[in-house]
Structure formats: C-alpha cells, structure tokens
Amino acid sequence: MDPPTSRLPVRTWHRARAEVWPHRRAVLAVAAVALPATVVGVVGAGQPVAMLPAVCYLAVVGSALAVIDARTHRLPDALVLPSYPVLAVLLGLASVLGPDGGALVRALTGGLGLYGAYFLLALAPSGLGFGDVKLAGLIGALLAWCGWAELAVGASAAFFLGGTWAVALLAAGRAGRRSAIPFGPFMLAGALVGLIGGPAVLGEALLLG
C-alpha cells in the first residue's frame, strides 16, 4: 500500500539523506567553497538580492549533486525532484520582492525550454542521461529568472566546460571515446558562469561575431 501523502515529505527527506550520507564529507567541502563563492559572485555581478535564497538553495543542493554525479554517475531523483517545488516557491517570492514582474514567467519558459532541449539530446546518442534532463529544468528556470543572456551563456558554458574536460582526459590517456563522463558538475558550473557573467560574456560574443 502506498504511504499517506502526509508522510511523503518525510520519506523524501530520508531518501535524500541516504543519497548524501556516504559522500557527506566531500559534499560539505564542496558546499563550503561553492556557497560563499556563489553569493559573492552573484552579488558582485549585480543580480537582484531577492533571488539569493534560490541561488543559495541550488548551490547547496548542487554541491551534493556534483559530488554524487562525479562519484557514481547519478543525479538522484530524491534530490532533484523535490527541488522543483522548492525552487518554484523561492523564485516566486523573489518575483514578488524583486524589480522584474515578468521574471517568473521567464523562469517557467526557460526551465521548460532547457528541459526540452536536454530531453531531445538524451534521446540521441549524446551520452546525456535523464538525470541531466531533470537537472536542466532547475538550472534553466533559475538562469532565465535572471535573464535570457544568463540562460544562453550558462547553457553554452556547460558544454564548453564539459567538452574541454573530455578533451583533456583523452589527451592524458585517462579516458577513451566511449568513456562515460558525468555532466552534472559541468551543468552546475556553467550555471554559475551564466549567473555571474551572462550579459558581459554574451555581449563580448556578439561584438566578436
């Protein structure tokens, strides 16, 4: 028999804890660096202060996801799926408190768009998994809330960083053409690049183009 709905948050919490606990030291170490660096970078880039709770949440959960994916090549649903309603609430509050009234609609559009793009890539022989697809929806929503430039740069940076790492591994003889490389850490790192330097990077690219 299925558990009562009222117990689902408790069960979800226990599942998430079970996923993180074996990697707790590495997760804490990554979060201790990622959280303050993200806050300083986002504030320094002039992003609205109202979206800091959403950024901090994704930085903490993203630290756990990055470590788990790097070690096990998995992005657990127990961490990713509950983040959807949490991020929706935090971005909704940021939209009420922030200066941009259309940010929430843009976040929904960006989240669905990046989710759909990754879904199509996962169906093709790209090496992406459906854990990456689910994470893409979160990243797309957060980046699009800030702006389309942040979304474009963040999504592109993930593939640039991941491709660079793959080439480096191949050159060093530590991976082959069929080796599986976890992409979640690069998606999260790309998101940070988009948040901090989205408009500036896109502007430079347009000028060079």
Characteristics of this structure?
209 residues; 78% helix; mainly alpha
Distance between the termini: 60 Å
Task: Detail the poorly predicted runs.
Answer: none
Task: Tell me, briefly, the overall form.
Answer: globular
Determine the number of helices (DSSP H or I, runs of at least 4 residues): 8
Total number of beta strands: 0
Mean pLDDT: 89
Give the topology string: H per helix, E per strand.
HHHHHHHH
Helix content: over 70%
Q: Based on helices, strands and strand pairing, what is the structural class?
A: mainly alpha
Main beta sheet, described? Answer: none
Beta-strand fraction estimate: under 5%
Rg calculated over all Cα atoms: 17 Å
